């Protein structure tokens, strides 16, 4: 990695599951480097959704290294998800033609509810399937599958957790970690965001900020997707032996109404 930059750059791992991200710093300049990131990153940068892409370099072996601005800032706190800018940025993402076109070029096809349901089921082992709240939630997903179909597919982030939202020191908002990006019903993002972070009394004002009309169909789709998201999260934590986190999300199923 060091041979990509001058020798006086300090390069340290940025963590993460892949081990392919690094921080590089020299004097007052900082970069975020990533190995073999998707070409989707360039469009996200051009749209102002992630920090600016500074350069891209292709190695002799075909690997591609990207460098982004490493801005001074921090992750969102859960209570900050009520900021107006969150709804506006999510709307911008969902309406972006360049993002949708690029994901299509990368071979992404619409991620439909039946596909998500199949993944939910495959991620739940026999022990999890024996839990009553999981059984009831799964029955809800199966019963309502035909009723949550939606014709308008958009680019969806897929994990709008507050840890993926960044606030710069100049109050700019970014949404990062796009490895799970897909083309789907926008309720796939809206449902988990509202259920997890926005008090129900504030949903009407959030819909207005986003620019969407509330309806019974939207409410059903939101509930369907947050239920599916929760079941996927439970399966993930069980698989990684994170039992405390798993128990939290099993308990969360009772709050979805």
How would you describe this structure to a colleague?
- This protein is α+β, with helices and mostly antiparallel strands and 257 residues long.
- It has two domains: 2-70; 76-255, Aminoglycoside 3'-phosphotransferase, Chain: A, domain 2 (Alpha-Beta Complex), CATH 3.90.1200.
- 42% of the residues lie in helices and 18% in strands.
- It has ten helices and ten strands.
- It has helices at 40-46, 84-95, 97-105, 113-122, 126-129, 132-143, 187-197, 203-210, 216-239, 243-252; strands at residues 10-13, 21-26, 29-35, 53-58, 64-69, 73-75, 154-156, 165-168, 173-175, 182-184.
- The strands form three sheets. The protein has a five-stranded antiparallel β-sheet with strand order 1-2-3-5-4, covered by helices on one side. It has a three-stranded antiparallel β-sheet with strand order 6-8-9, with helices on one face. Strands 7-10 form a two-stranded antiparallel sheet.
- Strand 8 (165-168) and strand 9 form a beta hairpin.
- The protein is globular and about 60 Å long.
- The protein starts with 9 loop residues before the first strand and ends in a 5-residue tail after the last helix.
- The relative contact order is 0.13.
């Amino acid at each position: 990695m060091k041979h990509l930059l001058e020798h006086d750059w300090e390069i340290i791992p940025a963590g993460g599951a892949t081990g392919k991200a690094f921080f590089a710093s020299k004097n007052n300049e900082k970069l975020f480097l990533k190995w073999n990131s998707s070409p989707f990153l360039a469009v996200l940068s051009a749209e102002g959704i992630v920090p600016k892409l500074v350069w891209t370099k292709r190695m002799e072996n075909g690997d591609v290294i990207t460098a982004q601005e490493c801005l001074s800032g921090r992750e969102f706190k859960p209570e900050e998800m009520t900021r107006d800018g969150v709804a506006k940025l999510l709307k911008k993402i969902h309406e972006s033609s360049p993002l949708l076109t690029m994901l299509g070029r990368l071979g992404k096809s619409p991620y439909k509810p039946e596909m998500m349901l199949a993944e939910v089921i495959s991620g739940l082992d026999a022990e999890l399937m024996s839990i009553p709240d999981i059984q009831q939630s799964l029955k809800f997903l199966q019963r309502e599958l035909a009723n949550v179909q939606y014709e308008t597919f958009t680019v969806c982030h897929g994990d709008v957790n507050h840890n993926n939202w960044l606030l710069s020191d100049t109050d700019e908002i970014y949404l990062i970690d796009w490895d799970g990006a897909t083309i789907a019903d926008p309720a796939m993002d809206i449902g988990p965001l509202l259920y997890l972070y926005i008090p129900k009394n504030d949903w009407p004002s959030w819909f207005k900020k986003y620019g969407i009309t509330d309806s019974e169909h939207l409410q059903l789709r939101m509930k369907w997707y947050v239920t599916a998201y929760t079941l996927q999260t439970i399966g993930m934590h069980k698989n990684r032996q994170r039992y405390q986190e798993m128990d939290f999300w099993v308990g969360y199923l009772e709050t979805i109404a």
